[in-house]
Specification:
Structural class: mainly alpha
Number of strands: 3
Shape: globular
Strand order of the largest sheet: 1-2-3
Radius of gyration: 16 Å
Oligomer: single chain
Helix content: 40-55%
């Protein structure tokens, strides 16, 4: 239960609390955005089967996007962003070591996708963006996306929930 409580504190509670703390300030902003790093909602049992607590906590973050985007429609943009592939982070290194890191993309792809979202106006809300799909829609090609690979030409590992 300690691990469960920690996951819900870090993922769901922190997302909700941080959003609530920023809303009064965002309502005064010219470009108010909340962007959660959370997956598209998909209630298929396969996503819950091997890690129900983690999936519940990440989907809790996504439900914050769904609810807050409706609650603040026209006032604050609330969206989610999730990677198509694994991202070379400390967490991925801990989970899969060098083999998984080599099959990942760099964090810059998420930063570039976030930039695209955060440059949009507040009418862009309630979306569950996937980094690669968003950047492709912005005109990036396979060649452009290749620059984000940790290992050029390597087969990329699909991320969880996609």
């Amino acid at each position: 239960m300690k691990k469960f409580d920690l996951m819900f504190t870090v993922n769901v509670r922190a997302t909700f609390a941080t959003s609530q703390a920023t809303i009064p300030h965002l309502l005064k902003s010219d470009r108010p955005h909340i962007l959660n790093l959370s997956p598209p909602l998909n209630m298929e049992a396969r996503w819950f089967k091997d890690h129900v607590a983690y999936t519940m906590s990440k989907f809790g973050m996504s439900m914050c996007v769904l609810g807050m985007s409706a609650e603040y429609a026209g006032k604050i943009s609330v969206n989610a962003l999730w990677p198509r592939t694994t991202i070379a982070t400390a967490a991925v290194n801990m989970l899969g070591g060098e083999p998984m890191m080599s099959a990942s993309r760099t964090p810059e792809i998420m930063a570039d996708a976030a930039h695209v979202i955060l440059c949009r106006d507040k009418r862009c809300t309630g979306n569950f963006f996937v980094d690669e799909d968003l950047l492709r829609a912005e005109g990036l090609s396979d060649a452009d996306l290749a620059k984000y690979s940790v290992t050029p030409g390597a087969a990329l590992m699909a991320d969880f929930f996609v």
